[in-house]
């Protein structure tokens, strides 16, 4: 029943970006299936995020980064009609936190953007990274780059800001859509994962510290 109700809440056409798929038959696809199975088994989320014995930490992180990108993408895509240039002229988390955008191409300096612009830049940037074989290699035997975990930290830190913005500015919409339980579970899963592998600086977590 839960899945059915989620299908109504999360309209697949609303995904902000196309979902990134794992190739069947690959090691990472198997790991993804393993992670999904333990998630569905109703296991405690703290246990679900732990590295399975004998698996590579980088593969485990890669699978989760892509999966969280897909899920958060869907959550934001569903909210996006409420997150406009008018409602959210600044990408923020309440009055205390403002997030500026910076990348290596268009925005060399941290730049003030509206929330929808920031989200657009963010999802494009993550998509570009996870589709880049030099950063997220998918072929067997191709090693991960040295800076892989640093890149993932940056991706996850920015994805965390989506939760901050959605929770602080669009919580009413989440409740009105009946999506609260789903968003909360996704947030908890994300939170336990980043804590398990110390992937985000604790200062970044402050806006949602009371959650």
TrEMBL record:
<dbReference type="GO" id="GO:0016301">
    <property type="term" value="F:kinase activity"/>
</dbReference>
<dbReference type="InterPro" id="IPR036703">
    <property type="entry name" value="MOB_kinase_act_sf"/>
</dbReference>
<feature type="binding site">
    <location>
        <position position="170"/>
    </location>
    <ligand>
        <name>Zn(2+)</name>
    </ligand>
</feature>
<keyword id="KW-0418">Kinase</keyword>
<dbReference type="Pfam" id="PF03637">
    <property type="entry name" value="Mob1_phocein"/>
</dbReference>
<keyword id="KW-0862">Zinc</keyword>
<feature type="binding site">
    <location>
        <position position="88"/>
    </location>
    <ligand>
        <name>Zn(2+)</name>
    </ligand>
</feature>
<keyword id="KW-0808">Transferase</keyword>
<feature type="binding site">
    <location>
        <position position="165"/>
    </location>
    <ligand>
        <name>Zn(2+)</name>
    </ligand>
</feature>
<keyword id="KW-0479">Metal-binding</keyword>
<protein>
    <submittedName>
        <fullName>MOB3C kinase</fullName>
    </submittedName>
</protein>
<dbReference type="InterPro" id="IPR005301">
    <property type="entry name" value="MOB_kinase_act_fam"/>
</dbReference>
<feature type="binding site">
    <location>
        <position position="83"/>
    </location>
    <ligand>
        <name>Zn(2+)</name>
    </ligand>
</feature>
């Amino acid at each position: 029943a839960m899945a059915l109700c989620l299908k109504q809440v999360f309209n697949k056409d609303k995904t902000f970006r196309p979902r990134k798929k794992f190739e069947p038959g690959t090691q990472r696809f198997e790991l993804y299936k393993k992670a999904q199975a333990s998630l569905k088994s109703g296991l405690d989320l703290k246990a679900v995020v732990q590295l399975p014995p004998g698996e590579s930490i980088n593969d485990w992180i890669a699978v989760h980064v892509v999966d969280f990108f897909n899920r958060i993408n869907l959550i934001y895509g569903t909210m996006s009609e409420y997150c406009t240039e008018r409602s959210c002229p600044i990408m923020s988390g309440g009055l205390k936190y403002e997030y500026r955008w910076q990348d290596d191409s268009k925005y060399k300096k941290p730049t003030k953007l509206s929330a929808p612009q920031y989200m657009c830049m963010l999802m494009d940037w993550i998509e570009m990274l996870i589709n880049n074989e030099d950063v997220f290699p998918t072929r067997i035997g191709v090693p991960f780059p040295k800076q892989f975990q640093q890149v993932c930290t940056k991706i996850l830190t920015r994805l965390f800001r989506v939760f901050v913005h959605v929770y602080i500015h669009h919580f009413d919409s989440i409740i009105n859509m009946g999506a609260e339980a789903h968003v909360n579970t996704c947030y908890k899963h994300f939170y336990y994962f980043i804590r398990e592998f110390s992937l985000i600086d604790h200062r970044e977590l402050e806006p949602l510290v009371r959650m």
